[in-house]
Amino acid sequence: MTMTFTDQNVHEIIASGQPVVIDFWATWCGPCVRMAPIVEELAQEYEGKAVIGKYNIEEENDLAMKYRIMSIPTILFFKNGEQVPSLRMAGAQQKADLQARIEELLAL
């Protein structure tokens, strides 16, 4: 199941050290809405291996400001409590491309 990240829970989840994938999105963003089923599928496929979820920039903004999210969708990857900048993705993504990045994250 896709995690819903909020400003209240996201820092604790990242600090846990487990692999974390955050999709920054908004309801008015067409590409974000089209990616939603892909993010949901990947959250189910990687359950127990990575925490995958969505961060709604309309409702939350601390994390978006911290990581300078200027366009959506943007996907950030974290492991061992730290962002992995080389894996950052911006714009709509194909499932295979996003899956490849998750595999890279898990291999770190």
From TrEMBL:
Signal sequence span per UniProt? none
Give all cystine bridges in this chain.
C29-C32
Q: Which CDD domains match?
A: TRX_family
> Which residues are marked as site: Contributes to redox potential value?
G30, P31
Q: Name one GO molecular function term.
A: protein-disulfide reductase activity
Which keywords label this protein? Disulfide bond, Electron transport, Redox-active center, Transport
Q: Which residues form the Thioredoxin domain?
A: 1-107
Active site feature: C29 (nucleophile), C32 (nucleophile)
Q: Please give one Pfam family short name.
A: Thioredoxin
Q: Name one GO biological process term.
A: cell redox homeostasis
Q: Where is this site: Deprotonates C-terminal active site Cys?
A: D23
May I have one GO cellular component term? Answer: cytosol
Assigned protein family: Belongs to the thioredoxin family.
What name goes with this protein?
A: Thioredoxin
Q: Please give the organism.
A: Duncaniella freteri
